Structures are given as C-alpha cells and as structure tokens.
Batch of 3 targets.
Target 1
Amino acid sequence: MINGIDVDALKGVVEQVSNEPESGMTSWGVTTTWHGGTRSDSQISSFSVGGQKIDRDFNIKVDEPLELLGTNEFANPQEYLLSALNACMVVGYAAACSVQDITIDSLRIETKGDIDLRGFLGIDPDVSNGYDDIEYTVFIKGNATPEQFQAVHEAVIATSPNRFNMASPINLDTKLLVE
C-alpha cells in the first residue's frame, strides 16, 4: 500500500483492462429530483463496470447561496462541479504516485472560475452562461523530485476523466418527457 492505494491491485486492474478492454467499460448515472426553490437531491443507486451492475446508495444535496435565491444549506452545482474535477485529479495523483513508489505527504488542489450571471439570466446573449476559464493550482509534497512530480502532473492532465470532460466538448443528448 502506497498513499492508501493497493499498487498490486491497481496493476492487476491495468493488466485486466489491457487484456480485456470490455472489462474496463463503465457506466454512471444520477437521478436528480427538485425539492422546491433552488433545492435538489441527486441519488446515486448504481454504476456498472465490465457489464456488472454494482449497487450504491449515495445522496448529494444541492442548494444555492442566499444571494442566488437559495437557502444556503448545501453546496451549489458549481461547487460540486469544481469539487468533482479536483477529486478526480486527486485520485490520479494518488494512483500515479503510488505506481512510481512516490509517497505523498500532502496534496491539495485549489480551483476557481468566474461565471457572469448576465449569461445565465439571459440578459446578454454575448455573455457566456458558464465558465470561460477555470484555473487550478496543485500543491503537492512528498519524496519525489520536482521532475518526478512534473511527470505525474502531466500524466494526470493526460488521463483524468473529469479534466478531460471539462476541457473537451461532449455530446449531450436530451429528451423532454412531459408527464
């Protein structure tokens, strides 16, 4: 175990997915239900890996700050989005360092982005309704050289699913069912 990662198990997963690509196919889903105002809950009940359904039971509560007409009881969607980006990259740093026998003493990622509400509120069609730029800084300390950490950093940039998702256009297919 290095950095809380079972390196042998990780290498086993890499070998299995290399030999049987279908075993590495995953599918994720979330069901979000509105609870009035700016409140919603997202239920996670399962995911699948290699065609096998794995039951899960998590609930993510979402709200908006008072200044955006919420009750400020929970983080808002933007905070969850940035948290998901950071958390995905943290997994990448932990795994990449562990495979290289690098022990992490501390790791934190600070991320920020600006959204102009004129876009979201439909006030100005020339204003983006989301982020134009997101900045993040990775602070890492451990038993590696700066060059080794740079190589890990580049590997995380190249392989993080959520970083990829936020940096690349994704096809979003939508349906509306009126009940």
Target 2
Amino acid sequence: MTTAHSYRENLFALVGDRDPIDVLSRTPSTLDDIIRTHSATVLRARPFEGNWTPNEIIGHLADGEWVYGYRLRLILCEDEATVEGTKQDAWVVVQHHNDREPSEHVEIFRTLRRFNVAVWRQLSSADLTRTGRHNERGAESLAAMLRMQAGHDLSHLNQIDRYVRAIQERVRQ
C-alpha cells in the first residue's frame, strides 16, 4: 500500500459514515471553541520539538481551506485538471503563522470555509465524479476530495487537542 493511499484511507476512516459537508460546516465553531477556551500563549506554545504549535495548525487549516477551494474550482471547471501538492511546512514558516493571532487565523478560515461549503452544497452527483490528477496521489474525484478534506479537519482538530493537553501537562509539572 502506498503512502498516498494510506493517507487517503486514514482520512476516510476519520470521517466514517458522517456527512463530510456536515463535518466541514462544524469546524469553524470547533475552532472558535478552541480559541475561546485556550489563551494565545498556550496556542503559540510548541508542545514537541520539531512539531507545529496549535496556532500553526490553525493557520495550516486556513491555508488548506484556500488550497482545497482552489482545487475544487479547478477540477469542477476545467477538464483534466492537474492538482499540485504544497510544501506545507514552508507555508507555515514563511507566513509566520505563529506570530498571528489565533482569532485572525480562525476568521480567515471561517470566511473561506463559508465560501467553499456553499460551492460543495450546490454540486450534483455528476459533479462529484469529476476528477483531477494530484501530482502525488494520482487521480482523485471531487467526492474523494470532499471526504479527504473532512478527514483533514478531523485529523488536525485531534492534533490540536493532543498538543494543548501536552502543553497543559508540561505547565502543571
């Protein structure tokens, strides 16, 4: 089994039988809860050397929303669309995600997500069969991309939760 296939299957498993659009629609309020419950200091703390901070993860989700929105439109509107991967670590570092306010990341995310979910909701079954070619994962339909995006949200929300708990545990010691 390839790494790309494993990645896709792991994201699908996180979504399970949930409606992916419902998962996508809930993420902004979950992020609101995170930034309301935890201080910017906690969210900017690095829980493990070499890993992102919770704030950087939120920034990554905002970047991902922009990328997924572009890919959605590209595959929907163009024949034989080629979809490129990103150097996500560079995006986080070069854009100084940890220097931004967590609320700014969430507001950017919320705005992009509202725009993109509106497009997802209007797609027909036939639209969801449209396929693009990802440079790392090969052919992907919009239906697969939708489930992957929902799984991506869930994966990173779980990661934020784990990292915040690790930060809080370190502070208690």
Target 3
Amino acid sequence: MSFLIDPPWLYANGRVIGSAAPQRAQTPLAAATAITFLGVSISLYLNRPWTRPIWRLCPAGSGRDWMLNSGLLRIDARRAGFRTHAIAAAIFATYPLWLWLGLRAERRKRAA
C-alpha cells in the first residue's frame, strides 16, 4: 500500500463491492475495507515493526519510504517533518472518499 497506489485501489475495491456484494452487505464490506487500508497504511507510515515483511517485498527502505515513494519518487522519508506528516494525514483522510466514489460509480451503473 502506498499513497500512489491506494487511491485507485480503494476506488477499484468500491467498484467490486458495489457490483459483487448484495446491497445490505456493501456498507459493512466498505467499512472493513477502509479500516484495513487505513490500519495497514498508517502502520507502514509509522514504521511499525509488524509491517517490515510488507515493505521489504517492495523497493523501499522502510514503511514510510514505501508510503511516500512507492519505489518511484525520491522523497527522503528519514527527513520527513511536520509538513510531510500533515500532507500524509490529509491523504489518509481521503481514503474513505476513494472507496465511496467507487461504490457510487457502481451504484449509478446498476441504476442506469
């Protein structure tokens, strides 16, 4: 999970939940998905020890490095300060929105 990958992945998960799950199961599935994404992604950003196997599979030096750079960018994750942390928090706050947008798109498709 990373800031570059998570939003489209959350949107896609919303589309899948909206198309494959019965209406009554969509809200609990979406909530569980959002909680999982946030829990793992925030833990990666905070370099929690249990996330080491995850970020070691990726081209990253730490969980925060993976979240910020996704193996593509060159942000120095070790020198992240208040501004970087504030931007990260704002991005995390958008995670439920991406999931909801996917759900909404699929519901509109079904209604059409």
